[in-house]
Amino acid sequence: MDRDEAAALDVADPLAPARGAFRIPEGVVYLNGNSLGALQPAVEERLRRVVTDEWGTGLKRSWNDAGWAHLPQRVAARIAPLVGAEPHEIAVTDSTSVDLFKAVVAARRLRPDRRVILTDERNFPSDRYVLAGIAELLPGTEVVAVAADEVEARLGDDVAVVTLTHVDYRSGRMHDAARLTAAAHDAGAVVVWDLSHSTGAVHVDLADWHVDLAVGCTYKYLNGGPGSPAYLYAAERHHDTLRSPVAGWFGHADPFAFGPEYTPAAGADRFLAGTPPILSLAALDAALEVWEDVDLAAVPHRTRALTSLFVELVDARLAGYGVTLESPRAAELRGAHVTIGFGGAGPLSRAATAAGVIGDVRPPDLLRFGFSPLYVRHVDVWDAVEVLHDLLADGSWDEPRFRATETVS
Ligand SMILES: *Cc1c(COP(=O)(O)O)cnc(C)c1O
What we know:
By secondary structure, the chain is α/β, with parallel strands linked by helices. It contains 13 helices and 13 strands.
């Protein structure tokens, strides 16, 4: 394939128009939407309006007049179709880490006679920290972490909860969520998926997979902005029995009655806790509008096409320079980012960023490139690999100025 052929694929792509909703800076190939999704001008405008008009002029009245009080539900209704859920099964609130805490504690309490929380030993570190904290807090709870391929074999009648991240943050490897959920249910366990690297990037159908609970991030492929609130999914069949361990007033059936006792709200809303972050929610609400015009069935195809092209070009152009593929070769086993290994990952990533190709690094020697299906084009993939090739071919990645590390890699 040459660059013209890549450009032709972009013309033919049904998702191509979505890029027009985003503002990618001139001269930048942005391949880090798996870490922080790109900005849409519509989000910028919405934030200006919320700050100046709704907050500045409307003041407290905007809780009613501008619909702030129902913003979590409004955003939940936008996320629901992206993950195969009903709006009342989604609560948009807090960070993914906090939502995972709430979801796993609630799930654990559905199986009081079992003591094990089963996870993958390579699960996202924050998820593992949260699980360790839960084990400290709940007497008789033990976290068992096994290799990803051994989760099914470890299932048994002591396992209360199975919690896994669908797409691995490092390798981009994707679990078979439907199969693992069914296996966990056969063993009597409750399942909590972390969909942080999945939502907006790969096929997700929580109803079809019969998932019990899930959490996910909105600042990656949903482009909600830095630190935008996460979401928690709770299947309707559990609504009567699930309790949030953080029983705050916004998760109350009638918060403004200021009653003495906590009565959980109906549905997933009981997992809301404190006052919703209106500025962040408004940004996320505006960011999600773009999905109204997206054919969701086209998303996984686009993701696979972009990641497959990257893998093909890495093989063809970078193989002679000590670069290795650290993501699955089979497109159906991958999420939307591809990871390559290289001895000088940090300097190479910083040199590529200086040349306009933005990815990131994960220690010790992995470079990640994310292919956000709404705005990354086939020509971007082509250009990115050419930049990497040129930096490797003339050795210019190895300059002293690229050796300094940064706070956020
Ligand atoms: C990005 C990510 C998160 C984000 O967690 P926060 O608490 O929202 O910062 C959680 N889990 C996984 C697997 C992630 O990739």
